[in-house]
Amino acid sequence: MKRVQFSGTPLPYFFVLPQIAIVIVFFLWPAAQAVYKSFLLEDAWGLTSQFVWFRNYEDMVLDADWVNTAVFTVIFSMIIAFASLAIALTLAVRANDILRGASTYKTLLIWTYAVAPAVAGLIGNLLFNPLIGSMTHLLHALGWEFDRASNGFDAAFMISLIAVWKQVSVNFIFFLAGLQGISKSVQEAAILDCRSRSKRFWTITFPLLAPTTFFLLVINMTYAFFDTFGIIDTTTRGAPGGSTQTLVYKVYTDGFIGADLGGSSAQSVVLLLMVLVLTAFQFRFIERKVHY
């Protein structure tokens, strides 16, 4: 059997060179710098530095504030991911059944995707304002003495609600596309075989959405870890007492405000490793239950 060989040309490499350069300059190089600086003890101006090996990492794991922030970040991310997925799936199922005015409903549910996290935080500030906020007045009317300024649970509830609202539209788009991609013949056969709507959904429809659900789970966890920075910065800024501070926001406050360059670099490296481990866990164990 004769082997077929193609003539080599550098043209494809030339086309991908700009993308490779962007990845190296804006991703790989800063990541390498963060790893290097995590082993240094520097002054606030970066003029002098001392190589201290793993001292920054030791100080970090022994810091109760960092441990509390890490625990809050994990719980916060899980709440955001599962709540936004559940709400989006419910809305997608309902919107998929609408025959008249479907485009209007879909547009109203999708357009929040265009809202930036910082803008979503500003909107949340108005809604939960202690004086004029409609959400605050509603919660007070329900008997909840809502106080985001001094109560950590109330502040966490506020940023969680804003973050979920911001992410629902993205999940809705993918879930709706997944539902519309299910064959009509499969849906008709399911109706004939099972008259229960809920049982039909959990045994037939939802398993067919497994690839979409798994993809969105990974995306939502990443969103909760990193993209909620703008929401927190425009609402609570980690208050009260750091109870709403996530790991990525702590990296910002310690590095840019506290001028602890070595400590914040160590935190960023650990945060990256946490996300990598979490993503690997999802692909290793959760993807096993996904049928493509």
From TrEMBL:
Pfam families named among the record's database cross-references: BPD_transp_1
Membrane topology summary: Multi-pass membrane protein
SUPFAM superfamilies reported in the protein's UniProt record: MetI-like
Stretch forming the signal peptide: none
ABC transmembrane type-1 domain: residues covered: 74-282
Cellular component annotations (GO), alphabetically ordered: plasma membrane
GO biological-process terms attached to the record: transmembrane transport
Domain of life: Bacteria
Residue intervals passing through the bilayer: 12-32, 70-93, 105-128, 155-179, 200-226, 266-286
Major localisation: membrane
Keywords: Cell inner membrane, Cell membrane, Membrane, Transmembrane, Transmembrane helix, Transport
Location of the protein in the cell: Cell inner membrane; Cell membrane
Assembly and oligomerization: The complex is composed of two ATP-binding proteins (UgpC), two transmembrane proteins (UgpA and UgpE) and a solute-binding protein (UgpB).
Family designation: Belongs to the binding-protein-dependent transport system permease family.
Physiological role: Part of the ABC transporter complex UgpBAEC involved in sn-glycerol-3-phosphate (G3P) import. Probably responsible for the translocation of the substrate across the membrane.
The protein's name: sn-glycerol-3-phosphate transport system permease protein UgpA
Organism of derivation: Pacificispira spongiicola
Taxonomic placement: Bacteria, Pseudomonadati, Pseudomonadota, Alphaproteobacteria, Rhodospirillales
